Amino acid sequence: MSAYLSEARTNFHAAVLVGLIRFNNQGVPNFADASSRSSSNIARRIVEKLQGEVSIGRIAGQTSGKVFEDLVLEFIQDCFGRLAHLRPGTWGIRKVSSRDRLSIAQFEQYTHLVILDEAARSNPALAAALGSDYTITPDIVMFRVPEPDDRINAISELVDEESVTYAILRQKNNGASILHASISCKWTIRSDRASKLPNRSTQSD
């Protein structure tokens, strides 16, 4: 009998096979660059390692992206929920539905980006210097909600008005959730994105 996380990983791989992977008429998986022998061989080997049946056909790029996000979200929610005894607190895991580049600014660590963006909008020279690299748009976020004082003091009085007045875990000091993980779900790497990497990949959507 496998451990729960091992079984969950196997189930995740099986869901990816059924929901995302297709062979074309030449037997090349849809996440490979069909024009590259190396990419095609590596993709076939990955499918073999996943050990499952794969259909022939096509899946629209937008559809595959959404399916992959949903599968990753379900996997993380399931597995992280089993770690409650190791990670106590009020946690949230969800997809970021908005493609607003400042969506990350809702979290405590990145609230300053709103101020930075406002400054850049009013100062063309600053906007040119910063570009847009200071923002990120995650697909899935994992975060912790700050704790109210009654929960912090549930066993004994740990905090009061004199101390711990800056800790972001204390709801009294901070109203924004605390980002724990930002997850980007990319089913394939487009050649224009890969060209920015040190070792260029030839995969494409």
Task: Explain how this protein is built.
Helices cover 38% and strands 10% of the residues. The chain is built from seven helices and five strands; from the N terminus they run αβαβαβααβαβα. The chain has a three-stranded antiparallel beta sheet, with helices on one face. It has a two-stranded parallel sheet with strand order 1-2. The C terminus is likely disordered.
* Residue share in helix: 25-40%
Q: Spatial order of the strands in the main sheet?
A: 3-4-5
Element-by-element helix/strand order: HEHEHEHHEHEH
| Quaternary state of the chains | single chain
Radius of gyration: 22 Å
Number of strands: 5
| Average of pLDDT | 86
Distance, first to last CA:
38 Å
Low-confidence segments: 195-205
Strand content: 5-15%
Q: Sheet with the most strands?
A: 3 strands, antiparallel
Q: Enumerate how many helices there are, as a single number.
A: 7
Question: Helix- and strand-based class?
Answer: alpha+beta
Q: Assign an overall shape.
A: flat
